[in-house]
């Protein structure tokens, strides 16, 4: 090689230059990354380091009108996992399964939740049994990424007594997650499933808190309290109009043997005081996953405990609907309270080639309208219906809300069944153009035929009868009263109708249900039904005190026999409510 | 003998000690993770290797350059034989898990012979290049040095170990340059590789090819050489991409994986991102010694070997990086000076070769961690954990001290 000092010096300068330039470029790259882009990378490093662990929030309390608890929260535990892969999730579930039995459904549910949201800790057990929690706490080291935390658990102190009202909560389902209204929900969270819990989900849902933990690259939790927690927050309690004592009382009356529905409400405000469907179920057993055996038993029960008989069940109203016929006739100016019909009641009425019987074979003789209401005479109403005419009867029924939902603030209320106007089109479609005669008018006029009403809608109808013709929308949760005028009668007519309803209990079909010191007005109904030839549905809808109504009660007993039985239950509810009102003025609850 | 002891290059020794101390401290920190791993105790091993390295370095520095020159041939032969042996008995471990880089006997891993092969190639190249009175001035005249590098290079690429292969190529060109080979010849020698790299951008390759033609026209090599050069460049720049395009994607992946097994596409992207996050989040002052969260929480891969510098950057910040870079640059400028003042062409070439090896490691390793260069597993001198490499580094220090002490002028006078 050429080793002349000058040449070597020249090469040394070039080599030194290359070294310096090379290191300057490297240093520049570090400067750019560390100083200029520091903020970006610092954030990324922090995101690497911290994982937000959601802290489940308690749901809002549901209280009755006096501040008594309908729904509250109990301490519970949830177990979740920060999993990196589905495999590690399954492995963890398998290893937990070695300690305590884990159902394959639980594993499947956990995997589904993981697939929904991989970054959020996957809930393995939303409501973990205490034994499992203590076993896992002991072996925490063996389960990296496992998060055991308290998760408030819904509890209904009066479970079965309030099941028709509150509904229950449960884990949000796959279907719900894909709906827009649950856009902000995450897999594994609890959501209201029925009743008030569903209706007022947005007001009952608590605000989830966040706990920050430090995790390593494998998702193992290596440090707690990496940053201050964001506390979960419960929303303000939900105040209802329910009178919990009355609600309990209704539940007690029905016991285990009766089947039916009850709605009790204030006639002027529409405030729902009690709402019951019998038989009941225990919503507390639905929390944290319904045991399969319980679910199957409820499904298999022929009395359909899960079917809300107060707002979903529709039943032929029978005689309680006769008041609609009477009011429509009076509005049309066809009849006054003391008007008689052409044919007196001899236990039946001949219409064409058919004989329509009165419920009382002995017959009622010659009655005025007031007397016909009091005795619930079918023959009188057959003739009244014919006088009104089918079209006007149906139009009047529709006007009085026989095709409307009551509008109660509970989910999935059913619409009553009632013919549409014009009737010809309706009946032609139903039976064929030659398949029906004007006889349908007779059936309709006594609340039979193509007429099936919900208990809550009948209660609403009678709020109009109890007051001035305006019906109040039933409201479980406190709100602004909403009243709609159903019919227009003069004061005198109104008074007379109300008097006849008072006489029903005073000396008519519900005479056995008179109360000492409280005047009850109302109407019994005994509706034939297609399901049971022997046992009819029993109705009573009434209000009290007759002179200044404070409560409207609608009682329906499936296959309950005569309306007088329903009337006895209704008057006991009325008595309980009004007597209770006398001794204890409702406490005002500060909001 | 007495004069040599006076001339020990203390600045060189001090810089090497400082970098090694810095490095072992970082290996210690690399072991400080929230979930303890085997890395926690490795700093002690590194200390042991350092102690051994000091002893070997001292022994080498007490020998003579003539002894080195005499030993270069047997050392080179032994190194090549070891590399051949590795192809049959080599094992994968550590950062080179998928390759055959490790020499092991009876299950005990003895070391990575490729680290010593670098030193052997430096010695052998220096011996061959210094033996000739004039630097080669034709491409064919480069056959001897080319062959010396080619044999171990092919053996190492067969392991396969792309990173170490790059060091051999860098050594080859750096030492040719130092021996006085004119730059146009170096450009021509490097042209096939450049063509291959530029082949994927036809426009850029075309420009490069025209430059090369101009260079050939100007330098006027023999017509055989000229024709061969043009032919090879055309093959690399045009034919190779065509052939590559005809391969199935899986064949391409296999070829890439063969060339660079550490570059598992998904894994390396993750490594690169986490490495940059570690560096970037360090900021100016860093998160504090042993406190780096990327490292503590195991987001940083290979934090004690190939990715040890991100630990420096994360924990000590840009200040720590600057200190390390200044130490490195002062060391390298010092060793260039040693090369320039060496007493013989052989010694000079050895010193420059060792400098080039360190510099290549430095650039490739740091460039990889900061995202300037693709990921090729290559360690950082004095920092990365590894016995063979620590030993090789200190053997280099020993040789440089020896060359410095025999060199002209006051070796311990000026710093640079």
Helicity level of chain B: over 70%
Task: Write down the overall geometry of chain A.
Answer: elongated
- Overall pLDDT level of chain A: 88
Average pLDDT reading of chain B: 86
Oligomeric state of the chains present here: heterodimer
- Helix and strand composition category of chain A: alpha+beta
What's the total helix number of chain B? 16
Biggest sheet, spatial arrangement of strands of chain A: 14-13-21-20-19
Number of helices of chain A: 20
Overall helicity of chain A: 25-40%
Name a few traits of the molecule.
heterodimer, A: 591 residues, alpha+beta, 18% strand, B: 416 residues, mainly alpha, two-stranded antiparallel sheet, globular, disordered C terminus
Describe the fold and architecture.
The complex is a heterodimer of chains A (591) and B (416). Chain A is an alpha+beta fold. Chain A is built from 20 helices and 21 strands. Chain A has a five-stranded antiparallel β-sheet with strand order 14-13-21-20-19, sandwiched between helices. In chain A, strands 7-3-2-12 form a four-stranded mixed β-sheet, with no helix packed on it. In chain A, strands 1-10-11 form a three-stranded antiparallel β-sheet. In chain A, a hairpin with a 5-residue loop joins strand 10 and strand 11 (221-230). Chain A is elongated and about 145 Å long. Chain A starts with a helix and ends in an 8-residue tail after the last helix. Mean pLDDT of chain A is 88; it is low at 584-591. With 416 residues, chain B is mainly alpha-helical. Chain B has helices at residues 2-6, 10-30, 42-62, 65-89, 113-131, 143-157, 162-178, 183-198, 202-219, 223-246, 249-259, 265-282, 293-296, 308-340, 345-370, 387-406, and strands spanning 103-105, 108-111. Chain B has a two-stranded antiparallel ribbon with strand order 1-2. In chain B, strand 1 and strand 2 (108-111) form a beta hairpin. In chain B, helix 5 (113-131) runs antiparallel to helix 6 (143-157), helix 8 packs antiparallel against helix 9 (202-219) and helix 14 (308-340) packs antiparallel against helix 15 (345-370). The longest helix of chain B has 33 residues, at 308-340. Residues 1-6 and 410-416 of chain B have low confidence and may be disordered. At the A-B interface, helix 1 and helix 2 of A face helix 7, helix 12, helix 13, helix 14 and helix 15 of B.
């Amino acid at each position: 090689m050429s080793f002349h000092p000058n040449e070597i010096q020249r090469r040394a300068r070039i080599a030194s230059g290359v070294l310096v330039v090379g290191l300057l470029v490297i240093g520049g790259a570090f400067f750019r990354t560390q100083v200029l882009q520091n903020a970006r990378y610092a954030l990324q490093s922090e995101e690497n380091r911290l994982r937000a662990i959601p802290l489940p929030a308690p749901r809002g309390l549901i209280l009755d009108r006096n501040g008594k608890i309908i729904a509250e929260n109990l301490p519970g535990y949830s177990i979740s996992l920060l999993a990196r892969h589905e495999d590690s999730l399954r492995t963890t579930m398998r290893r937990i399964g070695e300690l305590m039995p884990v159902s394959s459904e639980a594993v499947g549910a956990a995997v589904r939740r993981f697939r929904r949201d991989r970054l959020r800790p996957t809930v393995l057990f939303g409501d973990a049994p205490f034994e499992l929690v203590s076993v896992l706490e002991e072996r925490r080291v063996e389960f990296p990424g496992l998060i055991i935390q308290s998760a408030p658990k819904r509890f209904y102190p009066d479970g079965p007594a309030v099941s028709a009202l509150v509904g229950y909560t449960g884990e949000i389902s796959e279907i719900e997650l894909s709906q827009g209204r649950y856009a902000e929900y995450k897999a594994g969270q609890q959501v209201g499933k029925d009743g008030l819990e569903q209706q007022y989900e947005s007001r009952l849902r608590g605000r989830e808190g966040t706990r920050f933990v430090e995790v390593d690259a494998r998702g193992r939790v290596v440090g707690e309290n990496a940053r201050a927690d964001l506390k979960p927050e419960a929303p303000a309690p939900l105040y209802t109009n329910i009178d919990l004592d009355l609600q309990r009382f209704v539940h007690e009356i029905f016991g285990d043997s009766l089947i039916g529905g009850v709605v009790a409400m204030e006639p002027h405000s529409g405030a729902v005081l009690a709402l019951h469907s019998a038989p009941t179920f225990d919503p507390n057993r639905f929390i944290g996953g319904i045991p399969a055996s319980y679910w199957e038993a409820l499904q298999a029960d022929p009395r359909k405990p899960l079917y809300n008989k107060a707002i979903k069940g529709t039943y032929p109203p029978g005689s309680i609907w006769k008041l609609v016929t009477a009011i429509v006739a009076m509005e049309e100016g066809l009849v006054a309270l003391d008007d008689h019909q052409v044919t007196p009641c001899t236990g039946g009425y001949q219409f064409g080639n058919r004989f329509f019987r009165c419920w009382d074979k002995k017959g009622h003789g010659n009655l005025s309208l007031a007397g016909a209401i009091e005795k619930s005479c079918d023959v009188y109403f057959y003739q009244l219906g014919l006088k009104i005419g089918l079209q006007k009867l149906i139009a009047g029924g529709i006007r009085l809300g026989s095709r409307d939902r009551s509008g109660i603030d509970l989910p999935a209320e059913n619409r009553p069944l009632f013919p549409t106007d014009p009737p010809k089109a309706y009946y032609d479609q139903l039976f064929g153009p030659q398949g029906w005669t004007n006889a349908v008018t007779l059936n309709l006029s006594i609340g039979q035929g193509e007429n099936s009403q919900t208990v809550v809608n009948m209660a609403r109808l009678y709020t109009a009868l109890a007051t001035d013709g305006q019906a109040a929308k039933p409201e479980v949760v406190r709100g602004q009263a909403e009243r709609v005028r159903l019919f227009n009668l003069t004061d005198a007519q109104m008074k007379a109708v109300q008097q006849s309803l008072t006489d029903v209990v005073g000396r008519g079909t519900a005479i056995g249900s008179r109360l000492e010191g409280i005047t009850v007005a109302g109407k019994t109904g005994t509706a034939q039904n297609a399901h049971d030839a022997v046992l009819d549905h029993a109705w009573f809808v009434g209000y009290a005190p007759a002179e200044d109504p404070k409560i409207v009660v609608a009682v329906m007993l499936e296959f309950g026999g005569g309306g007088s039985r329903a009337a006895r239950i209704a008057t006991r509810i009325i008595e309980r409510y009004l007597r209770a009102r006398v001794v204890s003025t409702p406490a005002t609850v500060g909001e | 003998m007495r004069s040599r002891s006076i001339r020990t290059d203390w600045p060189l020794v001090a810089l090497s000690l400082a970098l090694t101390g810095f490095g072992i401290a970082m290996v210690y920190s690399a072991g400080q993770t929230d979930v303890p791993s085997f890395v926690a105790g490795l700093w002690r091993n590194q200390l042991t290797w350092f102690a051994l390295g000091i002893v070997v370095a001292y022994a080498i520095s007490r020998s003579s350059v003539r002894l080195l020159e005499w030993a270069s041939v047997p050392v080179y032969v032994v190194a090549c034989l070891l590399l051949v042996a590795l192809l049959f008995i080599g094992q994968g471990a550590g950062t080179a898990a998928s390759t055959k880089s490790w020499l092991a006997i009876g299950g005990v891993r003895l070391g990575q012979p490729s680290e010593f092969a670098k030193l052997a190639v430096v010695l052998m190249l220096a011996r061959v290049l210094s033996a000739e009175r004039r630097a080669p001035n034709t491409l064919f005249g480069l056959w001897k040095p080319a062959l010396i590098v080619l044999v171990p290079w092919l053996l190492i690429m067969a392991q396969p170990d792309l990173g170490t292969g790059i060091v051999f190529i860098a050594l080859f060109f750096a030492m040719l340059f130092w021996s006085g080979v004119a730059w146009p010849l170096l450009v021509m020698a490097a042209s096939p590789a450049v063509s291959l790299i530029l082949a994927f951008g036809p426009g850029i390759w075309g420009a490069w090819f025209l430059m090369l033609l101009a260079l050939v026209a100007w330098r006027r090599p023999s017509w055989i050489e000229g024709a061969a050069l043009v032919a090879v460049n055309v093959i690399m720049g045009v034919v190779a991409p065509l052939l590559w395009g005809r391969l199935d994607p899986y064949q391409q992946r296999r070829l890439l994986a063969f060339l660079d097994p550490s570059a598992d596409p998904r894994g390396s992207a993750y490594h690169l991102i986490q490495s940059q996050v570690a560096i970037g989040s360090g900021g100016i002052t860093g998160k504090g010694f042993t406190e780096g969260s990327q490292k503590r929480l195991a987001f940083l891969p290979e934090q004690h070997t190939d990715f040890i510098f991100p630990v420096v950057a994360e924990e000590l910040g840009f200040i720590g990086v600057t200190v390390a870079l200044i130490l490195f640059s002062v060391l390298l400028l010092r060793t260039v000076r040693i090369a320039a003042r060496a007493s013989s062409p052989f010694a000079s070439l050895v010193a420059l070769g060792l400098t080039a090896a360190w510099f290549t490691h430095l650039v490739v390793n740091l460039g990889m961690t900061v995202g300037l260069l693709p990921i090729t597993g290559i360690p950082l001198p004095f920092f990365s954990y590894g016995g063979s490499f620590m030993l090789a580094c200190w053997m280099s220090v020993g040789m440089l001290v020896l060359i410095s002490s025999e060199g002209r002028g006051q070796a311990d006078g000026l710093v640079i």
